[in-house]
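Task 17 of the worksheet. Students: predict the tertiary structure of the chain below and write it out as structure tokens. Keep your answer in the requested format; marks are given for formatting as well as content.
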Amino acid sequence: MIKRFGTLYAGQVDLDGIGFDGPPTNSRWYDNERLTTVFKTTEQLALTMDRLGFDTLWLAEHHFQREGYECIPNILLLATHLAHLTQNLRFGCGFNVAPMWHPLRLAEDYAVADILTGGRVRFGVGRGYHTREVETFGIPMLDGDANREIFEEQVEIILKAFNQPAFSHQGKHYTLPPRVPYRGYELEELTLVPQPVTRPIEIWQPIVSASTRGLDFMVTHGINGVVGGGAASTLLANSVVEGWRDAQARHGIETELGGNLIIGLSSYIADSEEKAYEAACPLLEEYQKMFAPLGFVRPITEEQITLVADPTRAGSAGLPKPREQGWVLGPPERLVDRLVELEEQFPGLEKVMIGQPVGAPSSILLEQLERVGREVIPAFRERQAARRPDQAPASR
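Model answer:
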């Protein structure tokens, strides 16, 4: 049953003119003063969520985005700061892009964040989807197979470092430690100092392509899955959840549908469905402008991608509207009903993310969080208690 609620903030500034009528994505270029406003926004979101009893604020790592969409380059550093402003809220790495790190530096930084926050950071890894980011850091992104190969070796190293008192690694891309003399002896092993102290270590990864290889890798390495939310905030496909359950079963893990998953929902709460739809349309349009060329708007043609880049023709591209994308629109009861449906559809599901896509202004993010926290979560928990009085979750 659903017990924990979160949201994702990818680090967007308040953009000028959102929607198809606004500036083309590639023409946006904000100065440093504007780009740094994301940190004040993150503080406001964290304080609001902590006050309302949310479980996790998920943050995304990205680089070089002068356009203002995803402007947080170090989420572990930011999470450590936010933990000292809040009391209970957890912070999720959604996600550290492992190919842009040395795996041992990422393991060390997470361990420090884990210790300094008292275990309030959730580790997460991804392969990346911006060529400008990943290739600039010297790792292939255009070559998807090479990217996956490096990523998988990095995860193996990180897990060794987290879990073994001393380790070594010999792979295609890394030899750890290097065979060098040190203080009078030949170096043969390393110890991560410090190691994380919160056990078990939760590790999360987005499920995007849902390939058999990718799902099997996640399951065999104890990694949980995130479906929807952020760049992947598209229509939820039951086949993805079923494929995840089947992958776990292949490796001896029996779960109900939704087990070891987070599912992300896009929503907009307003007094009526029509008002919510009108408010949601420009938010989805801005998301589509940014992410259609990156492959996250499906199905789509090259012609549609070209049209979306032109404000004078974007409206004729025929891209899905919020209703077609499965957004929950209207009064709070609509979202409560949707959560009840999810719980019945996926009985193993315990965690959800609720929010608006990348590009939504901070005023909307905060206003919608307030409504979810005050009008949706309490009502949903009342419904849970009425349906299953012996299983209703605690307040957080």
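Marker's comment: Residues 4-279+326-387 form a domain with the TIM Barrel fold (CATH 3.20.20.30). The radius of gyration is 21 Å.
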